[in-house]
Design a protein that fits this description.
121 residues, alpha/beta
């Protein structure tokens, strides 16, 4: 499965990429990383990923709008929102727009692994 990582934090993008080295996630391959929603949409169209990790608070285009546009482009894409926002209303909004899962920052390696396993099973 192809993965697009979307987060404005280089640290978080690299952490997600590092966690994907776990043997349980060997079926996932990173095809691109984006630092904002505008870049994410272009990379989504170009790479056609099966999975996306999506931050909600980013410059240029926030994650809820980006999620909605990605689902319009491919309703089969599985989007996992990973956000520091503890606002449940925002999480619910993202899920209503087509996200299939939500994980709060900070997260443990195991929480991210479990979220990917759940999303892809």
């Amino acid at each position: 499965m192809k993965l697009l990582i979307v987060d404005d934090s280089t640290v978080i993008r690299n952490r997600i990429a590092r966690i994907l080295n776990n043997p349980r996630l060997g079926f996932i391959r990173i095809v691109a990383m984006a630092k904002n929603g505008v870049e994410a949409l272009a990379l989504f169209a170009e790479n056609q990923p099966d999975l996306v990790t999506m931050d909600l608070t980013m410059p240029e285009m926030e994650g809820v709008e980006c999620t909605e546009k990605m689902v319009e482009m491919n309703s089969n894409a599985s989007i996992l929102v990973i956000s520091a926002l503890s606002d449940k209303a925002t999480a619910i909004k993202a899920l209503k727009k087509g996200a299939r899962g939500f994980l709060y920052k900070p997260f443990t390696d195991e929480q991210l692994i479990e979220a990917f396993v759940e999303l892809t099973s």
